[in-house]
Amino acid sequence: MTVVPASTAHVRCLPLSPSSAATARPWVLSGGGPGGVRAGARELRALLDRHPGWEPDAVGRALLRLDVSPPRPHRAVLVAGGREEFAAALAALADGPSDARVPGLIEGRPEAAPAGGPVFVFPGQGPQWPGMARELMATSPAFADRMRACDDAFAPFLDWSTADAATDADGAPPLAGADVVQPVLFSVMVSLAALWEAAGVRPAAVLGHSLGEVAAACVSGALSLADGARVVALWSRAQATLAGRGEMVSVLLPAEPLRARLAEHYRDRLVVAVENGPGMTVVSGDADAADELLRDLAADGVHARTVAVGLAAHSPHMDAILDTLRADLAPLAPRPPRLPFYSAVTGGALDPDERLDAAYWCRNLRGTVRFHAATRAALADGHRALVEISPHPVLASAMEVSAERAGSAAAVHVQATLRRDEGGPRRFLTALGELYVAGGEPDWSTVHAAQDTPVTVTLPPELFAGAGEESPRADGAAAAGAALRERLRALGAAERRGALAALVGEWALEVLRPGEARGERPDPERTFRDLGVDSGTALAIRDRVRLATGVRLSPTAVFDHPTPAALGSHLEAELFGTRRAFGPGTTTVPPAHRDGPIAIVGMGCRFPGGVGSPEELWQLVAEGRDAVGPLPTDRGWDIEGRYDPDRARPGTFYQREGGFLDGAADFDAEFFGISPREALAMDPQQRLALETAWEAFEHGGIDATRLRGSRTGVYVGAMTMDYDRRADASDDEVAGYLLTGNTGSVVSGRVAYALGLEGPAVTVDTACSSSLVALHLACEALRAGDCDLALAGGVTVMSGLGSLTEFSRQGALAPDGRCRAFAADADGFGLAEGVGLVVLERLSDAVRWGRRVWGVVRGSAVNQD
């Protein structure tokens, strides 16, 4: 454990006051291996039991006196406030690896000691949150002093205090709008850098992202604090004049294919604005084009979301302010940086002749943020520790993916500083501990209270020199994973998946609600997004899962496996070497059968006349019952006000009956892990398709939960959606969900996403022939080997009166809502709704799996409307 000097280490100090006793402090330990650390921890625990008067800060200083430089290979840090917290963390350390997360305990062995200090990485707008600086302003002189210096620097430009806004003080402006967010965020980032440096962690280089480049310039000495404040104040004020005219969209696609897509379909309306990492790109431009892109990407199953900025930075939108900005920034007096400066403007180390003058900052604001290229350049130069200096991590996952693609992920440590709602000294000390365990060298003496006391804490010099010092390297996560594997081995695969899904949910809540959710487990089918996971907490959950299982996971694991159940299934496959299949067992995928027959192995439907199953449909037909009835009264339609037998009056209809579904609005959102807010925003066609898909699989004797990860395709015909016309996009109850809830292409994607299906997902709209074409495409995909199982059919629900009024205007409807095909008294057609889906499989596979075959498709056709 900690190094042993030749003499006894002791510290004399006064008992801590109640207030200071509650302040978090670190105990820093190191040993030759995990065995030595555990033995030392057990002995230290015994010493604490014998000396109940020892105060935590005194013990922490005594431990530092036992330290050597460099520390021994296996490291541990305990961060706690009082004796009870330290005792719990020390007991967990002494007991050895566990899949339980112990608050305040960080342990491990550096993969590779970083050469020199870390790279300080400063993000752009996005990581801010209300009150983010409140705790550190009250507890850290280094942080508070720098915040006050930033206030002074902004004084010529602002009539309010950035420190007040960062602490959410009474009367301070809220964090809304670039002209407030950017000055406040700049101040917090510069002050966090000062806090790291005060703790002995000094940067070996700096790297900035958009706004973050200004903070990087000040920390590197390339700009004075006054010049940095000038840049941020004036360019954020200029950007605020463009608010509301554009949007930015984050897309999980590589930059080049996305750039080609934009050039083909959007021309100059949208551009690639930010290249964060491989497959992590941000698009910027016109607001309507951004909405259109979101719909197109959703149709293709590509994860994308609007970035909450409210303007189109790094796009042609900025051209309108560049001339003024260039003149306003002319007084800048940039200097050569005293540290290597990796530029996201150039994508590499700053050229010695380059100056961070007005022209540079205009290029920064207008051009593409080449953060991925700049990160690669820093890694290529040998930097192995990247510390994100921000109130919440937003770039950590991008940096990890960049390191992974560069082949150096195992040796690179990416470190966050604060996290949303964790902005105090405890979180910062935890960050110091994480960096230390990864190979960093903080000055721990700076974080302990001054000593001047008659109370003595004495630690024997042999405390950490015992057995285990030379023990071979052991990975605590790997040991925990082995223990977990043994506990689960006796269970069947399905039980293992269920157990792991429950554990993943529990671990996620531990990260999202530290100290509040012990033992609580969310619905395993509820998405991580609904639980409140963002890019920063996604990495923390990934790390927590790895700690408990020993499974190495991609930085994007939580997005790749979007529910606890999906991630649990992935873990089960990794831990036990299994792979899911949709049949009773795993088999080799048979070769494509271009002409083979296709079996119908399951069916699901909802039709007028109260039909809720294939059996009920057969009963209705066999009995010759009429399924046509009055117009529905549960959809908010003004039936009496809009009905008019005079076909010539616009906006009215003359058909009083039709084939309408009962309870079209009914939906069990909780069953599918969908929040009530999102369910309310979803077109009923999406809801019905989900429920009927599940019923179709059940009808075929197929466990839908076992299809996750399988090559199952979804082909659904759907009519144009009109549900969103009845919703107010500004309503907070549905805001954020209307776009995906009312896009036709999402009908198939929603089913695939909810059930975890990984075959093609295609929504078809060829009017009356949509279901025919969907069935044809599904059969062709099965024959070509594009999927092994397919869901095919169609859904129609009329949420509004548009179809009734339009067809009435054309005189195409039968007044009584009934079709009389080929009859002499035929007078139009009747509108009707429903959903019908069939589960399809190659007949040879269906026979092999022992399915019940309800019918065989030997040929299909497409439309020519």
TrEMBL record:
Any one Gene Ontology BP term: antibiotic biosynthetic process
GO molecular function, one term: phosphopantetheine binding
Keywords: Acyltransferase, Antibiotic biosynthesis, Multifunctional enzyme, Phosphopantetheine, Phosphoprotein, Transferase
Domain Ketosynthase family 3 (KS3): from-to ranges: 595-865
Gene3D superfamilies, alphabetized: 3.30.70.3290, 3.40.47.10, ACP-like (1.10.1200.10), Malonyl-Coenzyme A Acyl Carrier Protein, domain 2 (3.40.366.10)
Span of domain Carrier: 494-575
Origin: domain of life: Bacteria
UniProt-listed PANTHER family: FATTY ACID SYNTHASE, INACTIVE PHENOLPHTHIOCEROL SYNTHESIS POLYKETIDE SYNTHASE TYPE I PKS1-RELATED
Protein name listed in UniProt: Acyltransferase domain-containing protein
Organism: Streptomyces radicis
Higher taxonomy: Bacteria, Bacillati, Actinomycetota, Actinomycetes, Kitasatosporales
